[in-house]
């Protein structure tokens, strides 16, 4: 991609122009473009990503219900109904809404039904895995299954295995598992999440986005530890952090197709490389990002996590510093 100097903006579709067009339709209550887009989606990684982004846009509308009323036997519509229900339940928990439990059970029922409606699809299992974070005391038996490795904690391992059986190394499934571990963690160190992220990255093939997983955990640790302090910049130049950034760059960024690189992963990698003072590598990642900035992780560098303007400014400063490095050499 050309070296884009324009001011970035957040766009959940990123480089996926077809998804962007469908999102615009969904936001106005129309579903035909969503159906057409999903009919043309042939890979599980893109199906997972597109249904997630579409659900976030559709959660505040009745667009999926309208679609199902017109096409009650549509399998993609049934999957999207589960997706939207999960999104609403997770939002309700974040907002401490009184209907959280009701929405959680509704989402579980719809996701469970979707596992039978679309038996080869990993997304219904990803939906069930996403809901596991709401069970913070692990009261549900499916959320306290024995782990595949003795150093890992009990959790929704059966749900993860079902998603992996349908789409090995599914990116969202492992991020949902991380969110479950975050919800269980009492301390800022997130030891179990750290161990899990490294275990996954160690087993992921070249080109897998799971090599970026340790960087996501590091950002969460930074946030919980009271980031946004200049002194904590030392966090990113530590040997382990630098090693994680280099590994993600070489094992994922250099060995994956640009079309498969999510803006969120790219932003985490650019942030880590910049923090580790690996400016030339960071500049290449910023070029791949183009204008598609994501608020996280940059908001964690601001004095106020809600200050989007300051987060954009930090992104621009990091990009400018990284791009200037080759000329300084």
Coarse shape: globular
How far the N terminus sits from the C terminus, by CA atoms, comes to: 23 Å
Percent of residues in beta strands?
A: under 5%
CATH topology of the largest domain: Serine Threonine Protein Phosphatase 5, Tetratricopeptide repeat
β-strand number: 2
Averaged pLDDT, please? 93
Q: How many structural domains in the coordinates?
A: 2
Number of helices: 17
Structural class: mainly alpha
Largest sheet: 2 strands, parallel
- Compute the gyration radius: what is it? 20 Å
Name of the level-1 CATH class of the largest domain: Mainly Alpha
Taking pLDDT < 50 over at least 5 consecutive residues as the criterion, the unreliable ranges are none
| Proportion of helical residues | 55-70%
The CATH architecture of the largest domain comes to Alpha Horseshoe
H/E element order: EHHHHHHHHHHHHHHHEHH
Describe this structure in words.
62% of the residues lie in helices and 1% in strands. The protein contains 17 helices and two strands. A two-stranded parallel ribbon has the order 1-2. The longest helix is centred in the C-terminal third of the chain and has 21 residues, at 308-328. The two termini are 23 Å apart. The mean pLDDT is 93.
Write the layout of secondary structure elements.
Blueprint: E1 9-10, H1 17-27, H2 32-39, H3 44-58, H4 63-70, H5 75-94, H6 100-117, H7 123-131, H8 157-166, H9 171-184, H10 191-203, H11 213-224, H12 234-237, H13 239-251, H14 263-275, H15 279-289, E2 292-293, H16 295-298, H17 308-328
Parallel strand pairs: 1-2
